[in-house]
Design brief:
164 residues; mainly alpha
Length: 164
Amino acid sequence: MGNHNSGRRPKPTALKILQGNPGKRRLNEDEPQPPAGPVECPAQLKGPVVEVWQELSAIALAMGTLTAADVAPFATLCELELTRRLASQEKHREGFTPFLVTTVPDPDGEVHIKITEHPAIRMERHTATALRPYYEKFGLEPVARARIHVPKSAVVSKWAGILK
């Protein structure tokens, strides 16, 4: 009845190991690992989208949800976010009206008034919808953070091992 996307998404193997493999199922020993190394803004991003990259990557890197393997989808997220911001700015221009009123003549010669939504509002809504899965993947919305498990780095206390 379902396909490969049916059901819950699998937990990463590292998380299963940390939890003691509660399901006692065979672990995926061939799970791909992202390469270690610095995460850098791609060269094809230019202008204001670089500022969006710097703003959002600082957050995602601090949370541990951005790795070198995630650069391309994260760049897409930044481009979409810039598009959403530009569409939102359009609404704040002087003289902006949320609806456009045009007159349309029909074949009988009568004139009808047509009211349509401003393209900036439509673009903002469409882009926000496209952004949602990207925000979820990188833990940039509250509900997504509850679903993402990132191994915490072990903080060693200066008192650790003193009682041994």
